[in-house]
Here is the input.
Amino acid sequence: MTKKLILAIGIFTSFYTVSKAQEKEYIVTFENDTIYGNVKRKMDYGYARNNFKFKEKKQKKRVIKPDEIKFFQTIDGFDGNGFFESINKTYFLQRIINGRIKLYISVGNLQGEAPSYYFSKDNSIINSSSIGDTFSREKSHNQIRKLIEDKPEILKEFDLLKGSKKNIKYIINKYNESEN
Here is the structure.
């Protein structure tokens, strides 16, 4: 009985270790180098362009810049589990929905400004949206409506919904999960 318990604990520990190893923070450079380490939110109350720091093992922390880093992943950080992409080598956006239609949110400073939302379809250029803006439900609804016109059944359902952030995220996920 004791041998079976020790074996079960050993197997559980190895599965846990393997699963944790797959949940590492990393950055990917524009040269496609993947570097593992820790990504932290920089306490920056000003312009939010360079507001992340990265630390490799046995290295000093350094600010990561959107003109150097293609994308990075955070685990359980200030922004939770997140995937961030460099946009035009100028700023980072957090990708919150991935698929044919991608939805991004801005990485703001810590002054409490409301985030901005962006979208792209089929890897096209990223467009800003009116999602979340004051008095913008109809405008944001129309922006997303154009993206889903090729799926009439989803478009019909979307037209019955208000243009809220929750409904827009729901319909984009539904669109991305549907078959072509």
The chain has a mean pLDDT of 78.
